[in-house]
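Structure representation:
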Amino acid sequence: MSKKYLIDTEENRQFLKEINENLLSFGHKFPSPGGSSYYLGGDGTPWKERNRETWITSRMAHVYSIGTFLGHEGSKELAAVAIKGLRGELHDDKNGGWYAGLTADNEIVPNKQCYAHAFVILAASSAVLAGVEGAQELLEDALKLYDLRFWNEEEGLSCDTWNTEFTVLDDYRGLNANMHTVEAFLAAADVTGDEKYRKRAGRIIDHVLVWASDNNWRIPEHFTKEWVADLECNKEQPADQFKPYGATPGHGIEWARLITQWALSAHKDNKEGAAKYIEAAENLFNRAVEDAWNADGAPGIVYTTDWEGKPVVHDRMHWTLAEAINTSAVLYHVTKKEKYGEDYTEFMKYLDEKVLDHVNGSWFHQMNEKNEVIGTVWPGKSDIYHALQATLIPYHTPELSIAPAVKAGMQI
């Protein structure tokens, strides 16, 4: 086995550094004139006919804020352009909050998404650390708006989607938005010092662990407004981009990492308190990998499974692999169990052999069960967020959000 796939080797660190630099170079063409992010095509050329989404713009602000700390040329300017877009054309000055996006003709994409607003918080948090002009005001605005419209203090969870005017709340409740809320709240706590947001992240996590443990560690994704799990949601459209049917192993893996981060940061002086959450994170990760990795005779992590763990959508999404790389590394460093180091090696080898685009840069975003590139759910290479984080999280301190960890140089 090549040393560049092995965790804690200099060769692996160098391999990730090369991927990181490639990704940051790949994403340079994202800004539109108004600052919102174009969706990137297979070679990094903007697809200007597609919507310019708030969540993609936020991700680009986040990754280029991190690029600033890494010394990647032009990163601060790129982060600043994205922050300008979030404070300008993507912001709803009349009703508050952020549009879902803008069309190629600058029409408003309807609805206000919790998912997108969580990413605005993440972007602003990272940009504050990078010293981007206007980032502090953006963060304050985003947190205030989120508290008003999306966070439910009584439930300890966030709602999902409003209409554009914030007058009608959709009955759907979902865990994808809540997962990225945990990520955003942990970043906000790390950057602002306001521990209220870490406590809220813990409340969301406690709900998720009850639902997961009651369901053989396969996380229900979709819920009614009363937070009753809807296990049959989208059974007829199983590959839906944001609401796929069944369990999403990639989310089980991603939750495992976020839970570990929260446990270590919220229980700094209580190893016993942290341990039960880390054990739960291990259960989530191991269930997802057992169900989804190499589930159909070829390497890769299947997109979804049914509630017995059988694959439903066999496609492989790049973000799932990125999260598997992150979480296996974090669990290896936190638990010292060799199994996670072995998993990491498998994922790195698969990344190099199948998912890295060695010709045009970045990672292939969607592949079928034969590991052939397809684009039915994720054509092109929309942004670099998941992939870039996977070059950094494996070797940065696991209790901190990634932007503060990179800025502080807190490596393992």
User: Anything to note?
Assistant: The longest helix spans residues 271-292.
